Amino acid sequence: MTIRAEQWTPPNGPEPTALPMGRWWDAVRVEESVGERVLGILGEQSGAVIKDRCSTLYWLIAPGTAVSWNLRGVCVLAETEGVATYLGVPPAERLTPPGTYWRVPFIRGRYLTDSHLLYKALISVLLAEPGEGQEGDR
Fold first, then answer.
1. What are the φ and ψ backbone dihedral angles of 38, each rounded to 5 degrees?
2. Distance between CA atoms of residues 64 and 77, nearest Å
3. Which domain of life is it from (predicted)?
């Protein structure tokens, strides 16, 4: 599946800028321990990934492609019923900490991750470590 990435680029300037979901992309947020394993599965198939000050990872995906997801520990950030959700997006050059940076660098035209592949990788990681109240705890 080919994802058509709009001609969007990260903001200029030294600091992250809060940008709304839904226009160019939505985002999928996971904690670092899950996200790093997902990156291992996706490899070169991952688009750009933002890592924030709290060691949380964010994949950029096509708008509206993950709104129905209901996965433990996974938050889909999207515009909901006309209400905007924002994500702090670093400048393209920010590739290292401190602060919010690109864990997987932004590449024009290739920054979106295929949401179907991301979902499959998340399921794989989450099934490997069932949480409290999950079937694997019995």
1. -65, -40
2. 10
3. Bacteria
Amino acid at 110: R
Exposure of 55 in the CB half-sphere (CA atoms within 13 A):
5
**Which residue's structure tokens are 């490997």?**
128
Model confidence pLDDT, tens digit, residues 67-83:
999 999 999 999 988 88
> What distances in angstroms separate CA 21 from CA 9, 11, 125, one per listed residue?
14, 15, 25
User: Kindly report the CA angle at 56 between 55 and 60, in degrees rounded to 5?
Assistant: 135
3 state SS of 69: coil
Q: In a 10 Å sphere around its CB, with 0-12 CB exposed, 13-18 middle and 19+ buried, how is residue 109 labelled?
A: exposed
pLDDT tens-digit profile of 112-131? 999 999 999 999 999 997 55
3-state percent breakdown (helix, strand, coil) of the chain, nearest 5: 20, 25, 55
